[in-house]
Amino acid sequence: MEQLLGKEWDITPAGGATGDAYFAEYEGRKLFLKRNSSPFLAVLSAEGIVPKLVWTKRLENGDVFTAQQWLNGRELKPHEMGSEQVASLLSKIHRSKELVIMLKRLGKTPLRPEMMLQTLKGSFARYALASPFIDQAFHWLEQHLSSLQCDEHVVCHCDINHNNWLLAEDGKLYLIDWDGAMIADPAIDIGMLLYSYIPEEKWEEWLELYGLELTDSLRLRMKWYTIAQTLYSLVWQKKKNAKKEMQQSLHFLRKLVDPV
């Protein structure tokens, strides 16, 4: 790491799932470093969606490090996810043509629901995950697959958990951790956000802030993708042996497929 910044910098691991992120500090200057971030980061920085990209450096071993401006701030709290600021930033992301162009240059193709379902079936068979609610969820997804209609594919973050929203001290909001970004139906992001954080009686109000009408088609797509993403979470949690998180996901899945 010294070859990146010099011996005078104090560099410490930033934690996280991959272990490839670091904090660096020298004489009051702070940077956030990450190994092998996507080239997509440059466009996100230019659009003001993530903290400013300061530099990108390639090491002799082929690793690429990025340095971003370190901002003092905090994660959003769950009750803040219904704010106009969140709706406005997510709307800006979903309407950005530059983000779509960049992801396509990086080889991303639109994520189709039938592809998601096929991948999920294979994963659940491999990890021997089963429960009545999982079976019910797969049946519901298959039953409604042919009814999904979306003409617009946008860049979706695909993990809009409140922990990934950074509110800086100056009041500016950022959405960070873009490693799972896809070109997909915007209902992927919107559905998880609404089901996870917003009471159903306030969905129309939030979507008005976002700039979308709550139609029957959108309701169906949001539910479909929220169930699918919850199943994806269960696979990831099974791999990590995260039993507590698995129970939480199963409880969430039960509410989705058996809301009575």
TrEMBL record:
InterPro entries the record matches: Aminoglycoside_PTrfase, CcrZ_PhaseVar_Mediator, Kinase-like_dom_sf
Domain Aminoglycoside phosphotransferase residue range list: 14-215
Annotated PANTHER family: CELL CYCLE REGULATOR CCRZ, PHOSPHOTRANSFERASE YTMP-RELATED
Protein name as it appears in the record: Aminoglycoside phosphotransferase domain-containing protein
Record lineage: Bacteria, Bacillati, Bacillota, Bacilli, Bacillales
